[in-house]
Amino acid sequence: MNWYRNLKIKGKLLFAFGVVVFLTAVIGISGILISSNIVNRYTYNLDYPVMRETDSLEMEYHFSRIRRVTMSLSDVAGNSDRVSALKSEGEAAYSEFNTFYQNYLTNIDDDSNLTQSDKESRRENMALIRNAVDTYYSTVFQKCATLAENSTASASLSAEFAKIQLDSTETANSAVTALNENADVASDLADEIGIEITAEANTFIVVLAIGLIFTIAVALGIALLCASLVGKPLRALVEAAHSVATGDLNVDLSLELDDEVGELYESFDNVVYNIRRIISDIDIMHKKHDDGIMEAFIDENAYQGAYSEVAFGVNTTVKSYISMLNDVFAALRSIGGGDFNIRLKSYKGQKAIVNNELNDLVQTIRDITKEIGYLAEAGVKGNLSARAEKHRFLGEWAVILEELNNVMNAVGKPAEEIMGVVLELAKGNFKTKMAGNYDGDFNTLKTSMNFTVYTITSYLDEIKDVLSKISEGDLSQRIEREYVGDFIVIKESINKIAASLNKTMGGIHAASDQVLMGAKQISQSAMLLAEGATEQASSIQELTATAEEINRQAHETAKYAVKANTM
Question: What pLDDT, on a 0 to 100 scale, did the predictor assign at position 101?
Answer without folding.
Answer: 92
